[in-house]
Amino acid sequence: MVMNKDTSKKTAELLLQIKAIKLSPNEPFQWASGWKSPIYCDNRVTLSYPPVRVFLKEEIAKIVELEYGKPDVIAGVATGAIAIGILVAQELGVPFVYVRPVPKKHGRKNQIEGHLESGQNVVVIEDLISTGNSSLNAVAAIKEVGAVVKGMVAIFSYGFDVATQNFKDKNLNLKTLSNYENLLEQALDSNYISQKELATLQEWRANPSEWNQ
After folding, report:
1. Are residues 89 and 95 in contact, defined by beta-carbon separation less than 8 angstroms?
2. Is the model's pTM score more than 0.85?
3. So what's the pLDDT on residue 104?
4. How far apart are alpha carbons 33 and 44 in whole angstroms?
5. Domain map of the chain by residue range?
6. CB-based contacts of 72: which residues, under 8 Å, 6+ apart?
7. Residues of the chain whose pLDDT is less than 50?
8. Rounded-to-integer distance, Cα 81 and Cα 89, Å
């Protein structure tokens, strides 16, 4: 769920301007999953633009406090949300940990890096939500050590039905700065795309796994 439409559209505009989000309806990208896609999102690009990363840091921190109260710990999902998670934790003045997809094979074999105690309240930060599986895997790891996950805040979500269902099944509250619908609206308003390209992007969103096969 997007918190605020004005913030969502401003976020989308910034991501488009710095090409963190690229729209290419006529020359689709191929995702690691094998899906063909007219959109590619890499929010790590935001780290190279100080005004953008400050905006994201401040807006995410506001959502965290508004929705969940000040947590004991902020957790970032590796690797994409480590940096933005640290920035949010710094803004809130709270400790930070990050969660690997799987435990390390050597050393202490940690999956969670940093100091996290049973009973502590945690808000998880993500950069991007597609199916939600990797995000929910991180949540499971945090719960396994006895910490309490209050919810999650992400920069952007494609808003796939499968993700909505996955978060619902796990009873986890997700808030995002921006989403696919507001991105397309902003892209059209700013002449990044035409009406015809808008239709293509909407078709992909309706059935991404089968689109352009």
Report:
1. yes
2. yes
3. 67
4. 20
5. 5-203
6. 94, 95, 120, 121, 122
7. none
8. 12
Long-range contacts for 100-108 (Cβ within 8 Å, ≥24 apart)?
101/134, 101/137, 101/138
pLDDT of residue 3: 64
The Cβ-side half-sphere exposure at 46, using a 13 Å CA radius, reads: 29
Dig out the tokens for 193 from the structure: 């795309």
Answer CATH for 5-203 from 3.40.50.2020, 3.10.350.10, 3.30.70.270, 1.10.287.1700? 3.40.50.2020
How far is the C-alpha of 89 from the C-alpha of 73, rounded, in Å?
8
Residue 74, Cα to own-chain centre: how many angstroms?
14
pLDDT at position 106 is 72
116 secondary structure, DSSP code: -
Q: How many CB atoms neighbour CB 79 within 10 A?
A: 12
In the numeric block, which tokens belong to residue 127? 């950069």
Kindly report, residue by residue over 123-147, the tens digit of the pLDDT.
999 999 998 999 999 999 999 999 9
174, two tokens:
């997700």
- Tokens 């396994």 belong to which residue? 144
